[in-house]
């Protein structure tokens, strides 16, 4: 984002590219060709300085000089004419000498390199060290250990202005970000090619050779001073490369074009020229933060441009302490804050924190200070990931607990829905439910008639049948078994808009199931059973409740108590199901028969109780006629028309002789006719 993108006009790269290899021939070229190249650059183009990102480590015998020397020394040693001709042509055949002559007296810098392999050789010569032994004695500076070197031929090294190493520092990820400006070899210190070029330029400008002076802070290396310039380095004496935009940052000129005079004269006047290669076959392409394939010579060019502009980023030793402090402060803040937030707000905070970290890092970068960014981002990502993972595992555990808690209460498909949002169902809450109580009438007599093993099988079969109807067929929640009694409700934990209707339909199916059960029980010689069911709807408190020792998912409230009392009242009226007013109002599509108006113990207001007869669409004409007559009978009773009430009750008993409700009302009507009054409201007895 911040690197220069304009063309650097002070530095030009003469490129040994594919075009040059095709026209001039394979590398290495003859030193005669190299001499021609140097002469054209200085004499025709008037360049200011030439640096080679190339090492000339071997003699050039391509002229045949070695053969001529052997002949002159052996076969034609006594031939005066040959020896005379040999003396004339011998200098022209020494291409190394010709190349050395082209370098002499000109600002030319040669490259050399060090190596760390165990079999490293020490080939040719090194230039003079820029710092002598002991320059860093007692200082906290770490230098790599080098085993050997490959320098230039002595003749060439002596002819050049100076030399510098071309060793980069490749990080563990294979990316070149730094260049060691100084390396140590056998206690002496040698400079990089870019630093040698910069010193040569300063020396030419200032008229005197500029030396390298290390600058320390708290016994640690911070800068290298060359004349008026300072270059920030780390404790390895390495500087960060001030890269420019990849492609177009430097002018590349093919070496073949220079040799064949295809470059306009004087177009390179006073330029700093670097000779290097971009040809992939010569294996000098580097992976950098800018590109995966940057010619190595461009790394040197970037370093020289940075030195000329004094544009280097600094990463001093104390950035490690600053990084640790920031990591601790930021880490503790996020570690405390993230768990307190929801997943959405935690994500927002982490995103904002990431933006702040990047912006802070960017501001420091613009000021020339490099603070590591990856560690801070990794810390944020790690804290966020761990918290989200912890939340996920906690949520998964919560879901498993929900599943375990409700699997016995509700159908599996309902449990699956609840697992998606466990917090919604785990906490006690106020809700409108329909509550069902059922009880087996005369269970004490049944218990006495069966052996213990038979009784267990008897009650298990009964409870299983009723539980399947409640839980699986009508999606109710099984609250508990109380001996032979069952408590269930609808509307929790899953909301159910038709909780009253589903509760009533479940009660009707339970009564029908008793017929089938009794057939099976009778076939086995077991007593038959009859059940009473009470249903009421209303606001209750539902959720996980209990003591510290034992908890259960249940419902509590007045509506629950009324449902229990309605179940107990079914035996008095001789009917199978009694429901309260609220249930009758909420249960659509079902036909009800009003049974009575009763006063619940502890309440002043009376409620009307009803018996569900079945789905309205399934009601036959005979039952409709019976229901009309019953409603007329109730109106007559409440109006005090006992004679009409008795006549209607006679007709109703003829329609259904075995109905206990009609017998009960016939007795009450006869008693009222004798006494002249009838209780309009019946009080609940204790169950």
Walkthrough of the structure:
- The protein is of the alpha/beta class and 687 residues long.
- 44% of the residues lie in helices and 22% in strands.
- The strands form seven sheets. Strands 1, 2, 3, 4, 5, 6, 15 and 16 form an eight-stranded mixed sheet that branches. Strands 19, 20, 21, 22, 23 and 24 form a six-stranded mixed sheet that branches.
- Helix 21 runs antiparallel to helix 22 (660-675).
- The protein is rod-shaped.
- The chain starts with 7 loop residues before the first strand and ends with a strand.
Describe the SSE topology.
Blueprint: E1 8-15, H1 18-24, H2 31-44, E2 49-52, H3 65-73, H4 80-93, H5 95-103, E3 108-115, E4 122-123, E5 148-150, H6 154-159, E6 162-165, E7 169-170, E8 176-180, E9 182-185, E10 188-191, H7 193-206, E11 212-217, E12 220-226, E13 229-232, E14 238-240, E15 250-254, H8 255-259, E16 272-276, E17 285-286, E18 294-295, H9 296-309, H10 319-337, H11 343-366, H12 374-406, H13 412-419, H14 423-426, E19 429-440, H15 443-449, H16 452-473, E20 477-482, E21 485-490, H17 499-523, E22 531-546, E23 551-556, H18 558-573, E24 577-579, H19 581-586, E25 590-599, E26 606-615, H20 621-639, H21 642-655, H22 660-675, E27 682-683
Parallel strand pairs: 1-15, 1-16, 2-3, 2-16, 3-6, 4-5, 22-24, 25-27
Antiparallel strand pairs: 3-5, 7-8, 8-14, 9-10, 11-12, 12-13, 17-18, 19-21, 19-22, 20-21, 22-23, 25-26
Helix pairs in contact: 2-5, 3-4, 7-9, 10-12, 11-12, 12-13, 16-17, 20-21, 21-22
């Amino acid at each position: 984002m911040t690197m220069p993108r304009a063309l650097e006009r002070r530095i030009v790269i003469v490129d040994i590219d594919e075009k040059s290899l095709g026209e001039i021939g394979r590398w290495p070229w003859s030193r005669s060709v190299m001499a021609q190249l140097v002469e054209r650059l200085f004499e025709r183009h008037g360049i200011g300085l030439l640096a080679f990102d190339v090492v000339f480590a071997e003699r050039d015998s391509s002229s045949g000089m070695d053969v001529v020397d052997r002949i002159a020394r052996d076969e034609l040693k006594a031939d005066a004419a040959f020896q005379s001709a040999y003396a004339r042509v011998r200098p022209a055949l020494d291409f190394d000498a010709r190349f050395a002559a082209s370098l002499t007296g000109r600002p030319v810098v040669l490259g050399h390199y060090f190596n760390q392999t165990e079999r490293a050789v020490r080939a040719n010569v090194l230039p003079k060290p820029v710092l002598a032994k002991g320059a860093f004695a007692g200082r906290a500076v770490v230098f790599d250990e080098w085993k050997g070197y490959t320098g230039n031929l002595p003749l060439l090294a002596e002819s050049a202005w100076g030399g510098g190493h071309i060793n980069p520092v490749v990080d563990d990820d294979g990316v070149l970000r730094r260049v060691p400006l100084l390396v140590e070899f056998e206690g002496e210190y040698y400079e990089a090619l870019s630093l040698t070029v910069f010193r040569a330029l300063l020396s030419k400008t200032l008229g005197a050779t500029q030396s390298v002076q290390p600058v320390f802070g708290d016994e640690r290396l911070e800068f290298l001073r060359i004349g008026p310039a300072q270059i920030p380095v780390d404790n390895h004496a390495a500087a960060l490369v001030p890269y420019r935009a990849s492609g177009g940052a430097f002018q590349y000129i093919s070496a073949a074009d220079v040799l064949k005079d295809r470059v306009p004269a004087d177009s390179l006047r006073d330029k700093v020229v670097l000779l290097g290669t971009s040809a992939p076959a010569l294996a000098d392409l580097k992976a950098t933060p800018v590109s995966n394939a940057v010619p190595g010579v461009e790394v040197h060019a970037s370093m020289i441009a940075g030195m000329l502009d004094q544009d280097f980023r600094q990463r001093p030793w104390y950035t490690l302490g600053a990084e640790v402090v920031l990591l601790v402060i930021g880490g503790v803040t996020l570690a405390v804050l993230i768990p307190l937030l929801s997943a959405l707000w935690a994500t927002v905070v982490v995103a904002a924190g990431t933006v702040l970290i990047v912006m802070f890092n960017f501001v420091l970068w613009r000021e020339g200070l490099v603070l590591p960014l990856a560690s801070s981002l990794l810390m944020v990502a790690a804290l966020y990931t761990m918290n989200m993972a912890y939340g996920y595992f906690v949520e998964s555990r919560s879901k498993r607990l929900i599943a375990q808690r409700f699997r016995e209460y509700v159908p599996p498909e309902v449990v699956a829905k609840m697992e998606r949002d466990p917090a919604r169902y785990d906490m006690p809450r106020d809700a409108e439910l329909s509550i069902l109580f059922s009880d087996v009438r005369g269970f004490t007599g049944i218990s006495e008639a069966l052996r213990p093993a038979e009784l267990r099988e008897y009650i298990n079969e009964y409870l299983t049948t009723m539980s399947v109807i409640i839980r699986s067929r009508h999606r109710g929640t099984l609250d508990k078994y109380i001996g032979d009694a069952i408590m269930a409700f609808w509307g929790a934990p899953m909301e159910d808009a038709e909780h009253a209707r589903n509760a009533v339909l479940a009660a009707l199916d339970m009564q029908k199931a008793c017929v089938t059960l009794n057939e099976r029980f009778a076939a086995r010689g077991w007593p038959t059973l009859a059940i009473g069911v009470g249903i009421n709807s209303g606001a209750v408190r539902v959720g996980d409740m209990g003591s510290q020792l034992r908890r259960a998912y249940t419902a509590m409230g007045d509506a629950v108590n009324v449902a229990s009392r309605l179940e107990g009242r079914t035996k008095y009226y001789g009917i199978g199901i009694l429901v309260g007013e609220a249930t009758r109002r909420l249960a659509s599509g079902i036909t009800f028969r009003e049974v009575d108006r009763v006063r619940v113990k502890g309440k002043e207001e009376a409620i009307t109780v009803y018996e569900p007869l079945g789905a309205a669409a399934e009601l036959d004409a005979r039952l409709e006629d019976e229901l009309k007559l019953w409603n007329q009978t109730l109106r007559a009773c409440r109006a005090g028309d006992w004679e009409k009430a008795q006549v209607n009750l006679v007709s109703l008993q003829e329609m259904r002789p075995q109905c206990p409700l009609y017998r009960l009302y016939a007795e009450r009507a006869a008693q009222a006719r004798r006494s002249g009054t009838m209780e309009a409201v019946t009080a609940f007895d204790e169950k």
